[in-house]
Amino acid sequence: DVKVTQSSRYLVKRTGEKVFLECVQDMDHENMFWYRQDPGLGLRLIYFSYDVKMKEKGDIPEGYSVSREKKERFSLILESASTNQTSMYLCASSMPGSFTDTQYFGPGTRLTVL
Amino acid sequence: AQKITQTQPGMFVQEKEAVTLDCTYDTSDPSYGLFWYKQPSSGEMIFLIYQGSYDQQNATEGRYSLNFQKARKSANLVISASQLGDSAMYFCAMRDLSGGGADGLTFGKGTHLIIQP
Questions:
Q1: Tag placement on chain A: N or C end, fewer CB within 10 Å?
Q2: How far is CA A83 from CA A34, A89, A91, in A?
Q3: Is residue B2 less than 8 Å (CB to CB) from chain A?
Q4: Which regions in chain B score pLDDT beneath 50?
C-alpha cells in the first residue's frame, strides 16, 4: 500500500514565523503535490514536483515555496506565515504512467497562524 | 481551464439506501480522468474510484460505481447500500491526461454526506 506521511497533524505558529511542512512517501513515486483545503473552497493546488529539484507552480503559489532534495521528500515552506495561511495542508504523490496516475494523499496538517 | 461543480453541499440519507452524489465537469481537453475521493472527519483523502474519458464502461469498485455521461459532462458517484461509515465529505476531481507530465487535480467543493441509522 502507498504510504504518504506528513510531519505534523496539528501546528500552531505565529505571524512572521518561517514554517516547514514535511511530506514523505515510500512508494518511489516521481510526482508529489501540495494542496490547501479551506471550507467551501475544496482543495487548491499550491505547488507540485515531477522530479528531484524540479518544481512547478500550481494555482495559488503566492506566499509559499517548496523544496525537493530527495525523491521521497517534498517540503512546503511558508517564508513568513500570515493569518490567511491558516488552513489544512494536504500532500499527495503519484506515479506517472500508471494506469490512472492516481494521487494518494497523506493525513493532512492543520496549520493555525496566530 | 478545468472546472468541477458539485451542487449538493450536504445530504442526509437513511442507512441501507442508495446514494447518488452529483458531479459535473467542464474541460476542453479530449483526454481526461475523473476521480472520487472520500474524506472522513480524520482528514485523510481516500481514493475511491476512477473513470477515464475514453472508457466505454462505467467504473465500479465494490459498493461504489460511477455513472459517467460524457455528453452531459457528468460523473455521478453512486454508493449502494449505504453504511454509517460512509458518512464523510466526498470530492469529485479531474485532471488532464493529454499533457503526459505531472499535473495537479482540479477539485469540486465537496458534498458532506451524513448517513442516518
A1: N
A2: 19, 14, 21
A3: no
A4: none
